[in-house]
Amino acid sequence: MPAHRYAQDDLTEAIGDLCLAPGADRAVLRRLHASAGVRTRHLALPIERYAGLGDFGRSNDAWMAAGLDLGEEAVGGALRAAGLEPADVDLLVCTSITGIAAPSLDARLAGRLGLRPDVKRLPVFGLGCVAGAAGLARLHDYLRGHPYDTAVLLSVELCSLTLQRRDDSRANLVAGALFGDGAAALVARGRGAGPGAAAGPSVVATRSRLYPDTERLLGWDIGACGFRVVIDAGVPDVVRGHFGRHLSAFLAEHGLTIADIGTWVCHPGGPKVLAAVADALDLPGGALDTARHSLATVGNMSSASVLHILQTVRDTSRPEPGTWGLVLAMGPGFCSELVLLRW
């Protein structure tokens, strides 16, 4: 996490200064912040610096500088926890939807981390919030074909740097109430490579799903000012209408039902999305508590959130061996990604 941590109450008026015209009514802004389910968040920069960013170029430069530092810390920490060295990494997948760079972050990090010159790299842009789950799924695909390899997924999401100044649209205000900044890294090993020192669950299967005619539900409008968020109020309705049926069919292919899942690692899109997931799946009370806790303590960190939740599960309530788990997230497309785990 970046060092700059703020209580939600302390950010409300500061974000109002950035997004609203002087003297504008702040009642909607305050209601959104109060109902977002967020208590604290980390920001890439001190809050007083955001007014001076000025344009997309400066915001992207800030994303690059902070993202490299956080990415180096995340990957280095994940490798140490796994008892591995940078030279052990065969594939680095790097995802971010909050900035752009060529060479990409992974290329710029390779030397700083001490990765091998022949490391395979895959920078990913555009998956947004779903990329934590989708990135884990794609690592699984790669390791099935390279069972002796070690792969790393890095997510760097500095959502605060995309906040649009003097934009009082509901989508921008919702984003300003929900999103936080952070980076996360995950180490995965093929069956032939052996477990790391901090072995976690095995990936059993994955499933991707695109929902037709939903392209405008979630994403960016990209222009001179950078990334202007698109968040449609219809997202919870799509979740309620489709998610339960598709997830149940996926589990049935493996002889499982929703009741068999002992650990839920769900992207915390926001309180309404979490409620829609719980409704669609008829989940027992408390099933999504780790997602709600993550949202409350660090906000919605886009693709990094499910990795943050997975770490929390590992560190505070490690499931018993044999427990089934499910990683699930949704993102632009509109799409969802499911990753079936077993501890």
Please provide a written account of the structure.
- By secondary structure, this protein is of the alpha/beta class.
- The protein has ten helices and twelve strands.
- Strand 3 (about 90-95), helix 4 and strand 4 (about 120-125) form a beta-alpha-beta unit.
- Helix 7 (about 235-250) packs parallel to helix 8.
- About 45% of the residues are buried.
- The model has no long low-confidence stretch (mean pLDDT about 95).
Total beta strand runs: 12
The biggest sheet, with number of strands, parallel, antiparallel or mixed sense and barrel status, is: 4 strands, mixed
Low-confidence stretches: none
Determine the number of helices (DSSP H or I, runs of at least 4 residues).
10
Shape: globular
Through-space gap between termini: 27 Å
Q: How would you classify the helix and strand content by structural class?
A: alpha/beta
Order of helices and strands: EHHEHEHEHEHEEEEHEHHHEE
Strand order of the largest sheet: 4-3-5-6
- How much of the sequence lies in strands comes to 15-25%
Portion of residues within helices: 25-40%
The average pLDDT score comes to: 94
What's the Cα radius of gyration?
Answer: 19 Å
Quickly list its features.
single chain, 343 residues, alpha/beta, four-stranded mixed sheet, 10 helices, 12 strands, 38% helix, globular
Describe how the helices and strands are arranged.
Elements: E1 4-7, H1 8-19, H2 27-35, E2 40-43, H3 56-82, E3 91-95, H4 105-113, E4 120-124, H5 131-145, E5 150-158, H6 170-178, E6 181-189, E7 202-210, E8 218-223, E9 226-231, H7 235-252, E10 261-266, H8 271-281, H9 289-298, H10 305-316, E11 324-331, E12 335-342
Parallel strand pairs: 3-4, 3-5, 10-11
Antiparallel strand pairs: 1-2, 5-6, 7-12, 8-9, 11-12
Helix pairs in contact: 1-2, 1-6, 2-6, 3-4, 7-8, 9-10
